[in-house]
Amino acid sequence: MRKLLRSRRGSAAFATVIALVPLIGAVALGAEAGSWYVTKQHAQNAADSAAYSGALRLACTIAGAACEAQSVDYRGKEFAAQNAFCNSGDTAYPGTNCAPSLPSGISRAVQIDIGDYSAGTFSTPAAGTGNAVRARTSQQQPAYLAAVLGLTTVNIPAQAIALVKLPSKVCALALGPDPNAGNGALKIAGNTSSNGTGCPIMSDASVQFASTPSFSGSGWAVLGATGCSPNSTCASPGVTHNYFMPPALDPLQGLQSASFNTRTGDTSANSTKVTCPAVNPVTRLPYPNGSKCYNLPPNDSSGAYTGNFNWGTQDYVTFTGSGTYFFYNASINMTGATVTGTAVNIVLLGNSSLTINGGTVTLSALTSNPTYPALSGVLIDDQTTASVNIGGNGVIKLAGAMYFPKADVSFGGNTQPANTTCSTVIAKTLNLSGGSYLSTDGCASTTVAYTQVVALVQ
């Protein structure tokens, strides 16, 4: 018996068993924590995809483009659902991987917010405004072995923020939608050149090349939001290109609801025929025989020019002063005429129409309009639906932003600005050809369209 009591055989095994109890607990607790990490990664993937897809939808709203019916909130939750994160009872999304019900004690949540992101801080302003989307996902589940540490439930959260950035100026923008015939909202002829600076041109719908394009000069880019055709011309246009971007920002969309759009015509305010002076101020030469000269004063305060304005090769038209010129139900045809105007804003309303075909047309925008600030830097604001043609082989110098949100515009020929500053076009659809001059240099900041890029910033 004494030998048995003094025997140490098996004591190591006994000590090992005692030591294994906390060791096994630590390993099990580590395994449980590892499962939390995996869940955290799944939640983060869901948050990242939700924030990014929601921001893509927000970019469309910011751009003022024709957006799909689904909201930012819907798009965010749709992509969270594809990563198996849904709110209870809200699982019916395309491609969803959310189960109708989760195991007992487990719940998941998704929250999508629109807000402003700046300097690392996200704030939520008035509903529907902002430059970023925040997605929050979480999973709550029971604690098992961790209960010994006093944890009965564990909440595993994740957050992502996607910011809509404005990185590049755009000098020509087709707002869309694409024409019913299937052509792109932005159509580009075979040869496009510029005697100024090259720049991005973009469609908030699709792009179409009339033939294999050829660009002269540097700085060009062709961008679109919904594709390009025909395929044979799209892959190698010779310049930077991307046909699946968020829509570009329309900086002048506020003009579509401007109060002065209700202005109507006043026949007493039409142009005045005057005796031509001895010397043409543009050419510094005497006027040719048979020349006719017309003066148009601004009509900022009331009324609008109305009727037919057919100015031909022997017509010399002067916008006589700095200010705003309203036209209502007016047909404006400049065909070979000489037209000049400095620091002017031209507004077309009602059933007005505009054609510029050759001649010498030198117009520059009023850069600061105290009466109608929204028009500052805008040379032409056309709120009509009539097609617009600007081109020909004359010297057409249009300096400023030209806005045709409801019109189909052909812009080409040998057009050039009065200097190497701003000359931009925004239209419903835009057909570019020839040596049309385009540049964002010197534009008023409030008139410049920007491409948008969505980036995860948190």
Notes on the protein architecture:
By secondary structure, this protein is of the alpha/beta class. The chain folds into two domains: 21-165, no CATH class; 169-453, no CATH class. The protein is 16% helix and 37% strand. It has four helices and 27 strands. It has helices at 2-6, 11-63, 72-81, 231-234; strands spanning 107-118, 121-123, 132-142, 153-165, 169-170, 172-174, 186-192, 200-203, 207-209, 214-215, 221-224, 228-229, 240-242, 272-274, 292-296, 305-311, 315-319, 323-335, 338-349, 353-357, 360-365, 378-382, 388-391, 395-411, 423-434, 449-450, 453-456. The strands form three sheets. The protein has a 20-stranded mixed β-sheet that branches. A hairpin with a 2-residue loop joins strand 1 (107-118) and strand 2 (121-123). The N and C termini lie far apart (72 Å).
When the domains are counted, the total is 2
Helix content: 10-25%
* Cα-to-Cα separation, first versus last residue: 72 Å
Large-scale geometry: elongated
List low-pLDDT spans. Answer: none
Q: Please count the beta strands (DSSP E, at least 2 residues each).
A: 27
Seen as an oligomer or otherwise, the chain set is single chain
Q: Return the structural class.
A: alpha/beta
Discrete helix count: 4
Main sheet makeup:
20 strands, mixed
| Beta strand % | 35-45%
Mean pLDDT: 86
Whole-angstrom Rg: 33 Å
Summarize this structure briefly.
The protein has 458 residues and is α/β, with parallel strands linked by helices.
